[in-house]
Structures are given as C-alpha cells and as structure tokens.
Amino acid sequence: MRLGINIDHVATLRNARGGDHPDPVRAAQLAVAAGADNITAHLREDRRHIRDEDIARLMAELDCPLNMEMAATDEMTAIALRTKPHAACLVPEKRTERTTEGGLDVVAQHNALAPVVAVLADAGIQVSLFIAAEHRQIEAAARLKAPAIEIHVGAWCDALAERRFDDAEAEWRCIQDGARFAHELGLEVHAGHGLNYETAETISALPEIVELNIGHYLVGEAVFEGLGETVRRMRAAMDAGRATLRGNAAATGAMS
Fold it and tell me: Annotated catalytic, 42?
C-alpha cells in the first residue's frame, strides 16, 4: 500500500514569514527517506502555500513520483503539461475555503473535466479525481476514463473526531461500498483528507484502497516528533491495517 505525503503546509509555514525556510522540498526528501512512496503538492490558483518554483524543484530534485493536486483550469493544465508530474489529482477549489471542502461534482462538471482528463492522459500523466464515495460520482469518473479516484474521507474523520459515532458509521459504510464499487469498475482507489494514525490504520484494512495521501496531520505532529518519525509511524499504522486484512483473509480461507 502506497503512502503519499502532502507537503503543502510546510510551504504554509514558510509563507507565513516569507523567505525560504522551512523548505518544502527538503521536507519531501525527508519524507521519502522515512518511507513515503510519493509526494503530493497542491498548486492553488492563489498560491497560498505551494508555488510554481516548488513544483519545478520537486520535479528536478525528487527521486520518487510527484502527485500534483490541481483545479481543472487552463492555467493549471498548462503547468502540468509543462512540468509532467507522474500524477495529477483534480480537485475542487475555492478561494474562500481553508482547505478542500468536498469532492468534485464529476456528474455536473463532466463536459469541463473531459478535455482536461484527456489531455493529461495523452501526456502520460496519471489522472485521479478527488470525489465523494457516491456511486453516481464514481460512475461519472469511470465514464471520463480517469484511471484512478481518491475518495474524500474527511466527513468520516470529522465525525470520529467529534464523537458523532452514528454519523461516522454511516460514512464508513459509504467508503467501504464506494471503494468496492470503484474497484469493480476497474478504477484504482486512493483515499485522503483528515486521516491520522488511527483512521489510516482502519482504512488500510480495505483491500480495494491502494494509496493514502496524508499531509496536515503529519506536518502538525512533526512539530513535536520530527517529520521522519511521523512518516515512520504512519507507515507502521498502515502496515498494521494491512496485516489485519491479511489475517482476516487467512481466517476466511481456513474456514472455507
């Protein structure tokens, strides 16, 4: 199972004071050394954290795949085609939001998204769509021929954090069902937004999900533990979740 580390908020900290410190590219390199499989960076229209030069440096200095989060705009498409990241995750974006508030409405935006998905795919960039775990959105993603989706799991994580356990259970059932449905349609399934050690371990037990993308929580914990240690702890949590999956599969096989 792959672990992608989002370094946006290292750049947020840098930008709070200006200058070059802390360096998000150095953070990416430390994360990879500690066990990350890829790096995610969201180049926003307002450049509130990641800047154009960060994307250029990440492409030049990283020894692992870069996943560029981006809105499906002409500007961002041109930047992606110029820099050629390994992957591009298309996300909704509003200037007024603190962070990405929900998934793309692929159903309503099909005509706008189709040419972006096509041109990125033609350039050899793996496209994923950041969506809710809803059948109609997943079906729309499949119709666009995007090879992957990333399920927005923030509502589940928020419900758990706020101890709204009935809501959390309902959200979890949607995630399970959506991941299974997407896999049946031939989509690669990722997940992200709001994950911590505990929720990452839980979701790693879903066999259809092959990648988690995690940023804000790990950057926050790095203040206390160091970035390398937080990445290693996250990797261990995911491995524990996968071990649970393997144990369940072995028990099922033994019973049959």
Answer: yes
Show the low-confidence residues of the chain (pLDDT under 50): 251-256
Structure tokens, 225? 């533990």
**Position 59 in a domain:** no
Residue in the structure block whose two tokens are 């369940």: 248
Residue stretches of the annotated binding site for 1-deoxy-D-xylulose 5-phosphate: 8-9, 44, 49, 99
The pLDDT tens digits for 6-37 are 999 999 999 999 999 999 999 999 999 999 99
pLDDT at 255: 42
Residue range(s) defining the domain that contains residue 236:
69-255
Look at residue 21 and tell me if it is in a domain: no
- Tens of pLDDT along 44-62? 999 999 999 999 999 999 9
Task: Say how many C-beta atoms besides its own lie within 10 A of residue 98's C-beta.
Answer: 7
Question: Rounded to 5 degrees, what angle do the CA atoms 235, 239, 241 make?
Answer: 120
**CA–CA separation, 170 and 174 (whole Å):** 6
Distance of CA 219 to the CA centre of its chain: 15
Say how far apart CA 88 and CA 76 lie, in whole Å.
Answer: 10
Number of domains in the chain: 1
Q: Domain for residue 3, yes or no?
A: no
* Rounded distance between C-alpha atoms, residue 248 and residue 245, angstroms: 5
Q: Which of 93, 150, 152, 193 is catalytic?
A: 193
User: Residue ranges for the binding site?
Assistant: 6, 8-9, 17, 44, 49, 99, 194, 215-216
What 3-state DSSP class applies to 103?
coil
